[in-house]
Design brief:
- 4 copies of one chain form a homotetramer.
- Chain A has 212 residues and is mostly helical.
- The first copy, chain A, has one domain.
- Chain A contains 7 helices and no strands.
- The relative contact order of chain A is 0.10.
- At the B-C interface, helix 1, helix 2 and helix 3 of B face helix 1, helix 4 and helix 5 of C.
């Protein structure tokens, strides 16, 4: 695959829409039809369904998260002219995490009160946010952002919003993650990398400003 | 996300088509291949399949419902120019309910004679109708209806048809819902909200008429 | 829904592609990973997989059938200008049967030697062929065939090929179906209806010839 | 189906995207939510998830493979003008293998240390590579490659890269396959066929060079 590797954005978007549509619908497969001893008892069935409350709540929350990711991805992707190899790898990693999301959601629905379920669910969301931010940052770096729709200053503002979202998420989740020592250094490394990016980002921001 | 938030209608429609295609196909997953003690007995297998009668009936009915919702959604959506944030939230809620529909259908197929299954199935349909009506009403309110294809008077006629459909559904289901007291006040609130909309709707209708 | 009811062909085709893609992929869900007592025994696993031979054979055959239906449907649909209500009902019935197909295929894979499995599989294929033929016949009748791409004579030739395919299928399956008496009158009625269509079809054929 | 059989590339690509999106998402269905005796024990759940390590590893690897195949297919398909019957059969066989891939991946995830699982997984990948190579070779042979985008010399270079990829894969897998005698002659036949193609390929290559 030479340096002229390109793939049409429309092709990637069809795949993204397909994966999101299936991940959204597969979420509900975890909500199982309960087994009853007395098939005609209304009370038994209602009672069994109320026990499904956690699962249905996890379904609604996860669906909302997927909806949010879908909107966010398309708002970023529509500013990108073409998909080259690093962007493609980043987008496919994003899709792999989206496909993995129904499993994390099912785990959280079944074991809502169990910390370990959160320790899968929260990092998956964190990685999804990270790949999204990385996706747009790579597009900016590689001059693949559509200039007419999106000026360099506007692109930087978008990137800054992505980073702020990621930072808010990281801080919000720190208490949860702190409860397992293994995640604390990981969060530290991630934060350091973010700060590094932030610093580096100021240079093209300055040059963009001087250009305008 | 600023006030200039917009998403292309074509993007939403691809997601809608994907979710509908999967929900339609997932319906059939509930029709399980029966387990037989004698693998070669034609009578046993036919007998087991006839026992699946309710499940297959629920499958056919639910497929028809999904087909109806799909047609209805696209007939509404093709009159909308752009999707802004409130419309998007409304459309994603609609999709969450569509994804949830196979579960409700599976519940009804397994426990056809159980009132509690209807108490899940019927409100899900009601909410789907409600989000559809809300979707078009929001589009009208926010001036996102395509003017060339659809004059204000025509848009109002569409909205009135939506409301009438919702009202017929509500009245038809009242006897079922009445059997559980918890749903009676809910239906009352919904009806009151509808009447309020109806009253408010007359003002833009009048202004639309005076404009024509 | 007034007489001016129309839906864009592109919209239907996206749904059709989605349903086909999922039905094709769901076929394989019936091929279950075997359970072994000794996890490291190559012979045990190979033996268990060979027992899956029938299921994998049914998978390959059903996939080929779905591929055939997909090609056939698009070759018919691309000659249709617009989709009105009767065509839509016909197309959605077709999709319901396609969604149902993985169940029939799973049944045949599990109970290959059982006549009852064929009594589900064969009629489903027959109904799929019937809805396809009906779809194109309705399009011809309602003047929705694209005139530039497809002259009336060519459209009739297509319809005749559809009918011949349906007839060959009916005759080929008669021996199977004959073994259950219940299907014999059904086949008779279907054949009668076909002959009636054939006769009626000659009139527009004649008028089409005189027009050319 | 006459010699003028053609299908639009866009139609095939929608189906391909759909099948890939579903196959990617279905991969994760094999990662099952573990059953715990103590629902609130973090250690138990983490331990159970670590036992899923192989399955999650197989998921990540298989997702990467599917991503690779998807990119490769679209890079080949975008050079093809139209899809005629042999190309279509080849593409549908490719899709059947892609749909079958989640089963092979599930088998490998469950029985990672079992040779028989590799004996399913590796040949499926091999056949996918083979159908891809065949797809482009058929397109070249039948003059369906877009001339403007892709000169004959460039098309040949693509085909050569496909063949080299196939050859590397064959040699890399030989040690695995050698352990079962049944696969050795099969690999021999495949290699012979490749060499035959290679030889034949030189003739149009020479004519292409003389033309340039």
């Amino acid at each position: 695959m030479s340096s002229s590797f390109r793939i049409h954005r429309a092709r990637l978007e069809t795949l993204v829409d397909g994966v999101f549509a299936i991940a959204m619908t597969i979420l509900v497969l975890e909500v199982k039809v309960p087994e009853l001893t007395d098939r005609h008892s209304t009370e038994d069935l209602l009672h069994a369904l109320l026990h499904h409350g956690y699962v249905i709540g996890a379904y609604a929350f996860s669906f909302a998260m997927l909806g949010l990711f879908w909107v966010w991805h398309h708002r970023l992707a529509e500013q990108v002219r073409e998909i080259d190899l690093p962007l493609l790898v980043c987008a496919l990693t994003f899709l792999a995490l989206i496909s993995f999301f129904p499993f994390a959601s099912a785990l959280l629905g079944r074991y809502t009160t169990n910390l370990a379920a959160l320790l899968v669910y929260v990092p998956v969301i964190g990685l999804i946010l990270l790949t999204q931010t990385l996706f747009f940052w790579l597009a900016m770096r590689r001059n693949l952002v559509v200039a007419e729709h999106c000026s360099p200053a506007k692109a930087l503002a978008t990137h800054r919003r992505n980073l702020i979202g990621l930072a808010i998420f990281s801080f919000a989740c720190t208490p949860t993650l702190m409860r397992l020592n293994a995640y604390a250094p990981l969060a530290g490394v991630a934060l350091g990398a973010l700060l590094l990016w932030w610093a580096k980002r100021r240079v093209p921001a300055a040059s963009a400003k001087s250009r305008t």
